[in-house]
């Protein structure tokens, strides 16, 4: 369950970070826009994802697990931006929601 | 380094450094990454390669398993000075027992081992094999050479890896801006993207694994400080480093073999259990019936550690007055102590807790080192973190492999301009194939030989390993005689076929197949079979990709990529 929370939050956070970049904005929305809030929000969400990781595995193992999930969250977004960029508009919020709900239930 | 002797910037010089350190040691690093990644499943590989152990199915009650195992030890080694039992867990089906006879030789030589059936306590005779320990050892000290030499070679490669990471980050400063970017079907561009993505996405893992690899080899690479400070007494140095008092029995026993199953074959620091318990023989109370006494002790341990099962039972002085029983928790919560876990020592006669040895409190420096080295080895890791480490290892292996291929792809224009293939380029190309797919082929062959060689064969374990190297050599020869694209394709198909059939071979040769292991909940066996299917799928996917691109229709559809067609997989 905690694995799901951290992975879903990392995925949503990485989506926000990627959408703060011009290249990916054009892929998804067809136009670029200023996105400082998205960038900051993405980084903040990454930090938030550390909390359930540390709660589940303790400080040292938790940080290690968090880094691992960040890698695979980013890998997921990278693949999505390559092969199916547009659906990220709803998969990213869905990821954030899934993470939040799973966290509440955990 | 520039032939026109113009001044070059730091990025160009780093690029040269990155390319050449990468290719010179890339093959070795690929082998280190590949076998190291498999070693995250060392216990699972060991279990799979001894199918005789699959028949052992522990019951739900750990206390019952412990009682049965102790009764088994009573038959097997009633006169031993110490018994050590590793209880079954999600990674092992049996009780791994070791013991030392009273007058046994010091160190590893005096330790005897057996695997006990978790349901009956009877000894199981498993086939002779080095199992996953061969892959694990190969990963940091190679094979067929002096251990120190092997570690030096791997250590030097690790240093170059560290250099390659740092110079790579400097060279490709754009990688952070292109964090999420992969451009498929663009020849060299795609290979560079793939190399960058696998490098950057798992950068924390790469830095951790390389730096901790150096820490782990530190004693081999830089022994002089310790040598001079301790006058050549390595043991005294190691004991003090681990926070132990020289000669202190309890502390040593507690900390020498950290982590789950560290005392088993093929691991470092094994076989040092129980130097204590030789004195104080003599008169006193009658021997304790340990099989009965263990049940309430297990219940107490359960109450003490609601989050941890009992991992290990150590009995000192069985069948003698003053018997003590030490229970150790399975797993721990912090990496700073190198996975040391909580312990309880019982007086066997009364069943009362005699001692609660505190967890060691490491100094800041050793806590730091412990975190890195523990993360490297992953012995502490539960299933989630273990799979994360394994997948990160796969990403790292892919990073090295894409880098190796990139070296060849990058030089394709030069080849075309020359109208021939320089010997050096061809050598790199052949070696790339022989290493990248050849090593996977060799590993598949190793698993097959484990099941096909007769159990009674002389030198059986050695022949499994010889088979590994012969298969690897065959892959190199094949790569040399076939055109590169055909060699890549054929080897990928061979690897996929070898691995996809392993879960079929397993039940045919005495193991528990998926239809048995899944209902029994034997996670270790299930995990191995699924990992093999995953590897088969990966290589099958690459093979399919290559076959599709070879079709004339596909070539006509993509006329703009002669580069890709000639030299890349």
UniProtKB/TrEMBL annotation, chain A:
<keyword id="KW-0812">Transmembrane</keyword>
<protein>
    <submittedName>
        <fullName>DUF3325 domain-containing protein</fullName>
    </submittedName>
</protein>
<keyword id="KW-1133">Transmembrane helix</keyword>
<dbReference type="Pfam" id="PF11804">
    <property type="entry name" value="DUF3325"/>
</dbReference>
<keyword id="KW-0472">Membrane</keyword>
<feature type="transmembrane region" description="Helical">
    <location>
        <begin position="39"/>
        <end position="57"/>
    </location>
</feature>
<feature type="transmembrane region" description="Helical">
    <location>
        <begin position="88"/>
        <end position="105"/>
    </location>
</feature>
<dbReference type="InterPro" id="IPR021762">
    <property type="entry name" value="DUF3325"/>
</dbReference>
<feature type="transmembrane region" description="Helical">
    <location>
        <begin position="64"/>
        <end position="82"/>
    </location>
</feature>
UniProtKB/TrEMBL annotation, chain B:
<keyword id="KW-0812">Transmembrane</keyword>
<feature type="compositionally biased region" description="Basic and acidic residues">
    <location>
        <begin position="264"/>
        <end position="281"/>
    </location>
</feature>
<feature type="transmembrane region" description="Helical">
    <location>
        <begin position="152"/>
        <end position="171"/>
    </location>
</feature>
<feature type="transmembrane region" description="Helical">
    <location>
        <begin position="20"/>
        <end position="42"/>
    </location>
</feature>
<feature type="transmembrane region" description="Helical">
    <location>
        <begin position="493"/>
        <end position="514"/>
    </location>
</feature>
<feature type="region of interest" description="Disordered">
    <location>
        <begin position="243"/>
        <end position="286"/>
    </location>
</feature>
<keyword id="KW-1133">Transmembrane helix</keyword>
<feature type="region of interest" description="Disordered">
    <location>
        <begin position="314"/>
        <end position="334"/>
    </location>
</feature>
<feature type="transmembrane region" description="Helical">
    <location>
        <begin position="461"/>
        <end position="481"/>
    </location>
</feature>
<keyword id="KW-0472">Membrane</keyword>
<dbReference type="InterPro" id="IPR005625">
    <property type="entry name" value="PepSY-ass_TM"/>
</dbReference>
<feature type="transmembrane region" description="Helical">
    <location>
        <begin position="430"/>
        <end position="449"/>
    </location>
</feature>
<protein>
    <submittedName>
        <fullName>Iron-regulated membrane protein</fullName>
    </submittedName>
</protein>
<feature type="transmembrane region" description="Helical">
    <location>
        <begin position="192"/>
        <end position="218"/>
    </location>
</feature>
<feature type="transmembrane region" description="Helical">
    <location>
        <begin position="387"/>
        <end position="409"/>
    </location>
</feature>
<feature type="transmembrane region" description="Helical">
    <location>
        <begin position="520"/>
        <end position="542"/>
    </location>
</feature>
<feature type="compositionally biased region" description="Gly residues">
    <location>
        <begin position="245"/>
        <end position="263"/>
    </location>
</feature>
<dbReference type="Pfam" id="PF03929">
    <property type="entry name" value="PepSY_TM"/>
</dbReference>
